[in-house]
Structure formats: C-alpha cells, structure tokens
Amino acid sequence: MARPKLLPDNFTLCLVGTVIFASFVPVHGQAAVGFNWLTNVAVGLLFFLHGAKLSREAIVAGATHWRLHLVVLLSTFALFPLLGLALKPLLSPLVTPALYAGVLFLCTLPSTVQSSIAFTSIAKGNVPAAVCSASASSLLGIFITPALVSVVVANQAAAGGASPWHTVGNIVLQLLVPFVAGQLLRPLIGKWIERNRGVLKFVDQGSILLVVYGAFSEAVNEGLWHQIPLSALGGLVVVSAVLLALALAVTIFVSKRLGFNRADQITIIFCGSKKSLAAGVPMAKVIFASHAVGAVVLPLMLFHQIQLMVCAALAQRWGARDTSGETHAAARERSAAAVARR
Questions:
Q1: What is the reported pTM?
Q2: Which domains are delineated in the chain?
Q3: How far apart are the first and last CA of the chain?
Q4: Contacting residues for 84 by C-beta, under 8 A, at least 6 apart
Q5: Position with higher pLDDT, 283 vs 251
Q6: Which residues neighbour 321 within 8 Å (Cβ) at sequence distance 6 or greater?
Q7: pLDDT tens-digit profile of 273-313?
Q8: Cα distance between residue 226 and residue 220, in whole Å
Q9: Which of 140, 96, 116, 97 is nearest to 277 (CA)?
Q10: At how many degrees (to 10) do helices 177-184 and 186-195 cross?
C-alpha cells in the first residue's frame, strides 16, 4: 500500500507522538533527574558519532570556495537574526512572548547538515561545497549561537540568567568535546560508521526524541498548555512560513546578483535557508532554563517540518529541470551530428 503524500515522515510522527505522550505522561521527580542524565549521554554520543562521520577530504574539497561559504554563514547567522528582530512588531502579536523567544532562538541556530547536502544533491547543486558549508555552520554554531542568543533573545528569564561564557563552556563540554573526540577517532571507527549509517540515524533521532520528551515534560509540569492558546499555534505556522519564504527569496536573489553559477546558487539556497533541529534541541537544553525549553523548541520543530516539505519540493523540481535540460542538450547534439554526417 502506497504511503499518502500528505502524511508526514515517520520521524515527524514520532515527534508529535512524543509531545502528546509528554503532555499526558510527563516525567517528574527523581525519575526526571535520571532521565536528564540519560539525555546528556545520548546527546554526547550523537555529537561523537557526527564527529567520526565527518570526512576531512570532503571538507578540503569544498573549503576553497570561500565566497559561497561566506554568503551561507551570513545568511545563517546574520540574515535570520535580523529578520527575526525586524519582523517582531509584525509577527509577535500572532504568538505568545515565550513562543517568539523560541522563534528568535531558531534564528540564531546553524544550518542543517544531512538534509542540506541531500537536497543539494537532488537539485544537482555543488555537493562538496554543501558538505563544507553545512559542516562549518554546524561547528561554528557551537560558539556563535549562544553569543547571538544573549543579544537577540530579549527574554532573559527564559535564558536562565546564565552568562554567555558559562553557556559556551557548557556547550563546549557537552557538544564540542565529543565531536572532537569523534574526529580524532575517525581513522579507527570511520569505516564502521560508514557501513552502519543506521546507527547514527538511530542515535540522531533517538537523542532528539529524548530531549523533546524531557523538555515538554518539564514544560507541562510548569503549565505549558495552559499558557499557549490554540490561536498562537496557528500564528506560529504563519511566522515560520514567513521566515522561510523571506530566507529563500533573499538567498535566491543574492546568489544570482553575485554571479554564482546554477550549482552554487542551489547550494547557497539550501544551506543558507535552513535551521538544524539536531543541533538546536541539545543547544536549547544547555542555554535555556529547563522549564522554558518546551516552548523554545516548539517553533523549531514546526519550522523544521515546513522547511523539509518546501525544500524537498524545490529540490525535486530543480533536479528534474536540470535533467530535462541535459536531455534537450543531448538531443540537440545528436541532431547536429546527424546533420554533419549528411
């Protein structure tokens, strides 16, 4: 039986199920302490495996394309925060203050890695440059995101009052140290990781589900669903769609005006318009007070699903257009060769 086209992917369904389960069966008390420890271990393992997976050769292959990487990084860490702040008077009335703090938080996050590369490949873009750009964004985000949060997110109560340096220290310890350890051990375990990609996917998705369950459990215990009206969830869809549409429009316009070729334009569009759920959820857990994490990651979860659906449609359309162009070019060459033989 074919899967309905409008049905979300399995991971999205698991995310929704996790939120519903946490809403009715939240973890609390001493069990929450043990669950928090388990989540920290899972997140550390996730970044360790990402470090072991990342190919240095692929990074070197795309690292020389500095103009492209600069545009992607500016889009990720400058354009998005500016849009979030500039649109706040217009969009914040659609949601609650806590949810808009989450919107501003997602504006500070790095780009995705796996989906940016996958969509670039489907659309016939510059894949080595996408690998380099997305990986650099993810790594730099460990330092840039907490600094941006301290400037962009005005809701300091949600941030728990921790200093930026303390936050960076926690992120370095929980995320960067396992990542570097994975890179150092890549010569020993890299081939095993490549042969067992399912393990990384399981840890990737499993760690996110653990963090989401713990975050929403804490938020539900603090009365999350009594603080967020249904109209605010509808408003959040509008806010996410507007942010993504503007990011796509700006990256398309800028990449064309700067004279990048079609393959590079595709890379800039997909790497510069997306935000990482895999990096964002663990970072929110470190940066924000535990009772605020649920409301903070809710905009990111929704934006993540919208960006996947929109970018998947764009990638398939552009990839088909490129294939069609290649077919027509080949037909013209065959026709010219036939005329020449006559």
A1: 0.72
A2: 10-321 (1.20.1530.20)
A3: 53
A4: 103, 104, 107, 152, 243
A5: 251
A6: none
A7: 999 887 888 888 888 877 777 888 889 888 987 887 788 88
A8: 9
A9: 116
A10: 90
